[in-house]
């Protein structure tokens, strides 16, 4: 399984791009993959081909609104592991709590 952190932004659309981000998040939601939106991007969990395809779809969606799109993508592959969106945060929190 792969965790993908994704941020895709159409350039030249002003200071706020939340309306465009919402379109990408809707696309991610429709994919059926587990995801978590945060202030700087969206984390998606799934098999590598599916998350990469989803990233491509998000870029292509933003390209409908702008001739230039920037994307930041970070991948974390771990064989056999799933449910890591919450588990990774819980692991760090447990250590902060002294467990």
TrEMBL record:
<dbReference type="Pfam" id="PF01910">
    <property type="entry name" value="Thiamine_BP"/>
</dbReference>
<comment type="similarity">
    <text>Belongs to the UPF0045 family.</text>
</comment>
<dbReference type="GO" id="GO:0005829">
    <property type="term" value="C:cytosol"/>
</dbReference>
<dbReference type="InterPro" id="IPR051614">
    <property type="entry name" value="UPF0045_domain"/>
</dbReference>
<dbReference type="InterPro" id="IPR002767">
    <property type="entry name" value="Thiamine_BP"/>
</dbReference>
<feature type="domain" description="Thiamine-binding protein">
    <location>
        <begin position="4"/>
        <end position="93"/>
    </location>
</feature>
<dbReference type="InterPro" id="IPR029756">
    <property type="entry name" value="MTH1187/YkoF-like"/>
</dbReference>
<protein>
    <recommendedName>
        <fullName>Thiamine-binding protein domain-containing protein</fullName>
    </recommendedName>
</protein>
